[in-house]
Amino acid sequence: MDDAEADVLAYMAFPSQHRTKLHSTNPLERLNKEVKRRADVVGIFPNEDSIVRLIGAVLLEANDEWQLQHRYMQIEGMAELNTSTVEEEKPLQITPKAA
Asked: Secretion signal: which residues (predicted)?
């Protein structure tokens, strides 16, 4: 379990305004549900290319919606990642109270 600490806390390296969005899988679950809903309407696919076209179309549609409407992560906050210093690249430590 101690070996997984760096992986579990990886989202802490991102700006604070993005952390709540990164540790949640809600958008991914919503996207998977939409893909399943669209695939269920078709029922049986004639070939693999038709599956790729349908799922690709769903993913492109979702991408367009997020680009135009939601701006899920602010660009200004992501710019903070490019200005990281050597001090910030040290692994995060859990305080005894949090552990």
From this structure: none
